[in-house]
Input
Amino acid sequence: MQIKNAMILAAGYGKRLLPITEKIPKPLIKIGQKNLLERSIETLIKIGVTKVVINSFYLSDKIKEFLKNAKYQISINLIEEKGLILETGGGILNATKDFEKEPFYVLNPDTIWNKNYFAELKILENFYFETKKPVLLLVDKKKAHDKSFKGDFNINDKNLVTRDNNNNFIFTGAQILDRSVFDREKEKIFSMNKVWDNLIKDKSLFGYESNQTFYHINKLSIYNELKDLKFID
Output
């Protein structure tokens, strides 16, 4: 089996990257020769995805223009959030209606996705089909370029995700799930953290450990450190 659907989260303001994001939405910021959104889309294409939805809010017209000019040979649908940002959970729930019961990837474009991740994302996919449960790609915080990360989760010996007082793993921004994870959600605007916490309580959230150095653009100082590095594309 192969996952053909995916979503890219692209609705945020990117305030910690000001003044760059005054006129450019964060997903269109370039690292090396490619912007963050471009890297995300190309990664999904390489692992076999054929249908992508992207949510947008801030400077949505810029993203729309980029997609029009890029002319990708797969189905890409831009879902514009009107009036209010729906946050991560609400954004995913709103944008993935057409996926129905099929599983899908979700990527955060803030991570610098590149060819080093292709094999790990396919392993993540196999893991999903083995467990039939949502799975996150996590990385030891020691492997993060940005040493300010405190850690989001832990993984036990059965690959179940936990949250503890001290957490050693960072969420890379890649996950596989299906819409059943939202069955209990009654709100329109909510974070994926709420969903993850419920899944953790049910012992239904799994994690797979990435071996890559974790590069994530979350603030201007990190962008300035990484913008000219030569990543393997």
